[in-house]
Amino acid sequence: MEISDLMPVLGGVATRDLLVRLTSRRALESALATGELVRVNRGRYAVPGVHEGTELALMVTGHVCLVSAALAHGWKVKVVPAVPQVAVPKDRRIDEALRARMSLTWTDLDDAQVEGLATNAATTLAMCGRRLPFDEALAVADSALRDGFPVARLHAMAAAARGPGSARLRRVAAHADGRSDNPFESVLRAIAIDVPGLEVEPQVRISGDLGLNVRADLVDRRLRIVIEADSFEWHGDRTALRRDARRYDLLVANGWTVLRFSWEDVMHDPDFVRAVLQATVVRTERALAHAAPA
Fold first, then answer.
1. Alpha carbon distance 273, 239 (integer Å)
2. Total-model pTM
3. CATH code at 197?
4. Fewer Cβ atoms within 10 Å of its own Cβ: the N or the C terminal residue of the chain?
5. Angle between helices 151-160 and 134-146 (to 10 degrees)
6. 138, 159, 178: which is the final residue of a domain?
7. Residue 59: CB partners within 8 Å, gap ≥ 6?
8. Which pLDDT does position 111 carry in this prediction?
9. What is the phi-psi region of residue 247: left when phi exceeds 0, alpha when psi lies from -120 to 50, beta otherwise?
10. Which of 178, 194, 215 is the last residue of a domain?
């Protein structure tokens, strides 16, 4: 797969080691030379819209915001925006030609809310939590926590939030979890959160008979359901295929129901994913009720 096709799947940001492993050093160097990738900090690369957004923000005396700001901070996202997202003061007038090159948000920011030409980490999280769909905002929040943003600070921000979107921000903060490995898992968890009766936890270690000892992407301990974000990143050879086959065989042998979802279905057909999860919960609940002593 070409790096330009790979980056959206990886959340718009990736480390050098991962890109080299999935492609090659030559492909990485070529992508940097042609502008397909830009360096955001040591050993971490992002889609070129990060630098384009900074340039446009400078031209309109604004600040990169929302998902574009998340990318500028080196956070992974569900969807890389088609054009940079830029915040400008409410009274700012923008030339039509420039407006066509970006997605504008009119809002007044003070110096404490910005860092260089982007909204700072806290403001970026608050804006994303208030304005983005739940799954997109959760992917950003999970990534920020993985990157070291204090979870206590996120909770405090959400608790203090008032006005439009504050309830949405509180919901994102309540469910944000830095244990999620990537936006793929975050979006899958967002879908699962909306399924009645399903209570999932990310990155749970499961052990059992026959040598079972695995870390599962999402786990409902009560229903003994394992939900996997089945990424192509780790399935490049026969050894990986055999390891995965054993992993799922051992889980089933130990009484776990295992569901595996592709990136394409999670990102582009959430109704299918939700329907499968709902049907599995209903079937499992019925089986538990039938097995319960009278």
1. 28
2. 0.91
3. 3.40.960.10
4. C
5. 140
6. 178
7. 98
8. 94
9. alpha
10. 178
* Token pair recorded at residue 118: 């982007």
13 in any annotated domain? no
If you search the block for the tokens 């806290």, which residue do you land on? 122
pLDDT for res 280: 98
Q: Which residues of the chain have pLDDT under 70?
A: 1, 232-238, 294
Comparing C-alpha atoms, which of 82, 122, 86 is closest to residue 107?
86
Query: Residue 57 carries which side chain, given as an amino acid letter?
Result: A
Q: Which two tokens stand for residue 281?
A: 């919960």
Half-sphere exposure of 254 (CA within 13 A, CB side): 20
Its domain, for residue 206, covers 184-291
CB 254 within 8 A of CB 212: yes
For the chain, give the percent of residues with pLDDT over 90. Answer: 76
Partners of 215 in the β-ladder: 205
Tokens, residue 269: 């057909």
